[in-house]
Amino acid sequence: MLSNKHRYTIYRLFKFLLSVPLTLLAPFFPKKPYIVLTSALNKVFEDNSQALFEALYTDARFKDHVYFVLNDRKKRAQLNQIYPGKFISNTSWKNIKLILSAQYWCASSLELPAPGLFNRHWRTVYHLGHGMPFKKAGLAERKVSWYKKLYYKLHFSNISYTWCPIQSLRDEVAETYGVKTARVKVLPQPKTATIATPLPVAEPELNNKEFRHVLYAPTWRPYADVLLFPFPDQDLQTLDKKLQELNTYIWIRCHPRFSEIKGNDFSKYTHIKEFSVNSYSCINYYLSYFDALITDYSSLYYEFLNLERPIFFFDYDFEKYNQIVGVIDQYSDLKVIPSITSQKMFMAQLYKLKKAEINIEPFANLAKEWNYPIELKEINNLLLDELFPSIAQRENA
After folding, report:
1. How many angstroms separate the CA atoms of 290 and 292, rounded?
2. Which one-letter DSSP state was computed for residue 11?
3. Low-confidence ranges of the chain (pLDDT < 70)
């Protein structure tokens, strides 16, 4: 059984075996005004790649120029019902020719639309990422193996630019990916724009404004499974009763890549529920449903700041996490409320949330300091004009 840390290593190494022939072919394809996107493992439609694709598809200037690589046949067929002809695989020669002739590639994970090396010399390649650094990641982690260093070196030989939302994080992002700071643009994330356009949810409780809703979204650990409600005085039955009294629901959502909630049966509780990754893949579309966030080292922190609402920390294993993975130097500055270390302390904060007694001004100040200074509804226009100028200018002419 592979650990969390190496779950996808074999798949990615196999993909790199295909890099050499496609790298040799890439320079000989005349570039056309196509934009080709993909997401994790070429198997999902999510995160920044999903958000950017949807922004491109709904803009008349770009709609005829955009494609998305998705190798899951069932998902591809479903999405082509919504976006006819826009979802392709990279497993046929016809599609490979289209992908290699594209002027722009975009990827939110460590997979490209097609395997290759040095692609930034033949086209513009954007690494969208899937979150801003709150913890150490990539090459900035405390311990980095030689093969991980080699993998990142080869992968980022393809990347023209990655980015982050504020100037002060550029060096952190550059260290994470092993690139020069000049290759880190200061721009908002595509998925941040989706906070302004919430999608409907099926759960009737979430649609009831008389209730308070708290999103519990811990990140994954490379050394162990996540401990949920990690309190020495944990008593979930008592907590559930308190939640009923406060008309408050807690919605658990673990990391999308490691989302199983192991060893916990929450079905017996009425006010502790799962907000399923399978049902709601892109969390930003749903953030506005929640009155507060519980997290630890997740980059979702930055996204939720945009709402200027309370954020609680269940960082029960901080010492170990910081030793093995690491957090950014400003971690403690981003915690307005001290770490919650007991159920009693947590219930006190829930009472304050119900009574609107939590001071949100510090969260509002952090939102201005740690996010790109732009209205959410203006993000897409900025990104499309900045990232794809040749197509934008051509269509505007």
Report:
1. 6
2. H
3. 1-18, 256-263, 395-397
Q: At 22, which amino acid appears?
A: L
Select from 358, 373, 353, 386 the least CA-distant residue to 243.
Answer: 353
Residue 133 has phi, psi (to 5 degrees) of -70, 120
* Strand boundaries in 183-270, DSSP class E: 184-186, 212-216, 248-252
Q: Which of 325, 317, 295 is nearest to 137 (CA)?
A: 325
Cβ atoms of 339 and 346 within 8 Å: the answer is no
Question: Going by DSSP bridges, is the β-strand pair 184-186/66-69 parallel, antiparallel, or unpaired?
Answer: unpaired
273, β-bridge pairs: 251
Written as one letter, the residue type at 133 is: P
d(CA 264, CA 17): 40
Query: Strands 272-274, 248-252: parallel, antiparallel or unpaired by DSSP?
Result: parallel
pLDDT in tens, 24-57: 888 889 999 999 999 988 999 999 999 999 999 9
Residues 6+ apart with CB under 8 A from 42: 69, 70, 71, 90, 111, 113
HSE at residue 144, side-chain half, CA atoms within 13 A, is: 18
| Residue carrying the six token digits 């046929």 | 92
| All domains in the chain, ordered by first residue | 8-188+375-396 (3.40.50.11820), 196-370 (3.40.50.12580)
Instruction: Summarize pLDDT for 300-337 with one digit per residue, the tens.
Output: 999 999 999 999 999 999 999 999 999 988 888 888 88
Give the pLDDT score at 333.
Answer: 85
Residue 96's nearest CA partner among 76, 65, 71 is 71
pTM equals: 0.90
